[in-house]
Design brief:
By secondary structure, this protein is an alpha/beta fold. Helix content is 31%, strand content 20%. It has a single domain, classed as Vaccinia Virus protein VP39 (Rossmann fold, 3-Layer(aba) Sandwich).
């Protein structure tokens, strides 16, 4: 069981999530680890093939994938220290959406892209145009608090969801883990 999962579980199982200060504790867990809570099953899915992660932040998921025997390359425009994160768990390379074009032979992993921001859409489009064929996406659906409409338009037009996993959710958050394949029709 990973550290973030233990933190999440203590708030949900012990009902301490609802006490004063719990939102601050959740915010701290998000900042130091990740916006989304990984499970062993989710990490195992990510080890199926080499991945490139864009927007890796602290590198928490990348570390868990690496520890589970997976092959991962992680990028973030501001590794470890940006307005969202302040932890360091894995060697995250400095790089943005163009970095994924160098790794079209890997599956693309995007975890909790910033809300109403074009980074996820641009990364996914760049990846597809470079020949990428597999996406692991952790976040909310359209109209949630991750990515933007262009990202979901790109998904609907060019990708199909072949697998969905449930992952732990913070109170009021509706994220999931979806595996997409490039649609063979080239829609």
């Amino acid at each position: 069981m990973n550290e973030l999962y233990k933190i999440w579980r203590s708030y949900t199982m012990d009902k301490t999530w609802y006490v004063p200060g719990s939102w601050e504790a959740r915010a701290h867990a998000v900042r130091v680890y990740s916006w989304a809570v990984p499970t062993n099953t989710a990490i195992h899915v990510l080890t199926r093939q080499p991945i490139v992660e864009i927007g890796a932040g602290t590198g928490y998921w990348a570390r868990l994938v690496h520890e589970a025997g997976g092959d991962v390359v992680a990028y973030d425009p501001e590794p470890y220290q940006n307005r969202y994160v302040s932890g360091k768990h894995f060697p995250v390379r400095k790089g943005g959406t163009r970095s994924v074009a160098q790794h079209a032979d890997r599956a693309l992993f995007i975890c909790w892209p910033p809300y109403n921001d074009g980074v996820a859409a641009l990364a996914l489009r760049t990846y597809r145009r470079a020949g990428g064929k597999k996406l692991f996406y952790v976040g909310e659906d359209r109209y949630g608090c991750t990515a933007n409409n262009q990202f979901f338009d790109e998904l609907e037009k060019h990708w199909y969801c072949g697998e969905s996993l449930s992952i732990p959710r913070w109170d009021g958050i509706y994220d999931g883990f979806n595996v997409y394949d490039l649609a063979s029709t080239g829609r």
